[in-house]
What does this fold into?
Amino acid sequence: MGNEAQPADATQSVDFQQVQKTEQFRELRRRHRSFVFPMAVAFLLWYFGYVLLADYAVGLMSIKLWGNINVGLVLGLLQFATTFGITAWYVSYSNRRLDPIAAEIRGEIEGHEFDASATAASGRAAKGAQR
It folds into this structure.
């Protein structure tokens, strides 16, 4: 009834190396890496800075701010706040800058524009037309 049978695993027919060579995919990868790598480095520096302060600057970390709340506790809680903040920032960034490109690529994959068998079949058809 107009429905073509799909292979058991539809991803087997996709030429993912061809997808990776497209300008869209390269731009998607560039945008992703330009956010993730600097953010990961910044957070790791912040985390290890906290650990080093806790180990080597005990006097600083034990300064009382309000009652039993000291600098170490505040900085430790800020680690959690930073994690949630980075996550929210990444979700926003992804929604604006990554998802539109990823949706285009997915549409092309689901539209069978990168099928290995379709590429081979179209190549055979073009050779047949030349004869």
Q: What stands out?
A: The helical segments are 16-20, 23-56, 58-61, 71-110, 116-130. Strands lie at 64-66, 69-70.
